[in-house]
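Lab channel / #folding
Pinned by the channel admin:
"Please post every new chain as: sequence first, then the structure tokens as a reply. Keep commentary short and put observations after the output so the thread stays searchable."

First post following the new format, from NK:
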Amino acid sequence: MATYTITAQNGEYSGEVAGISFSRGVGEAVDPAPNVLAYFARHGYEVARKGGRKAAPAKTEAKTPAKDGAPPKGDDSSDSDKGE
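Reply from TO:
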């Protein structure tokens, strides 16, 4: 059974987010679904597994090049600065 401490950016927040109750900016989750932990990580909450280990970062989609060789969408590199 894994327990996680989730800390909100607003240290005064008390309420519920994604089914987790928060009091003064801190919530605790016992065996939450992986998508719940990913949600909090994506939205800037600190997620730590009790026992001192930080939770694994949320998985992100890998950018893969298009079949035509074009850079992946969202890629910051471009040919426009090569002087062509």
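NK: DSSP finds one helix and five strands in the chain.
TO: also worth noting, The two ends are 58 Å apart (CA to CA).
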